[in-house]
Design brief:
By secondary structure, the chain is an all-alpha fold. It has one domain. Helix content is 81%, strand content 0%. The protein contains 3 helices and no strands. It has helices at residues 2-21, 27-37, 41-61. Helix 1 packs across helix 3 (41-61) and helix 2 (27-37) packs antiparallel against helix 3. The mean pLDDT is 91.
Length: 64
């Protein structure tokens, strides 16, 4: 069970890091998702750190 959880977290981290680097996600996509999911407070609290991380990656890559 611990292997499944650690593997899932590793996959999630790799996916969230590689998606902006490979161009699968752009800044406008993040803004659209933030708008769609921001209306629900609980969901917004969970996904905003993910969106912030991906926006920082895009800024670092020059995707402003």
């Amino acid at each position: 069970m611990a292997d499944l959880i650690s593997g899932g977290l590793l996959y999630l981290g790799a996916y969230l890091t590689l998606a902006p680097i490979l161009g699968a996600v752009e800044k406008q996509d993040i803004l659209n998702l933030r708008t769609l999911l921001g209306g629900t407070r609980i969901v917004a609290v969970l996904v905003n750190p993910v969106f912030d991380y991906e926006a920082r990656l895009l800024s670092t890559m020059g995707g402003d």
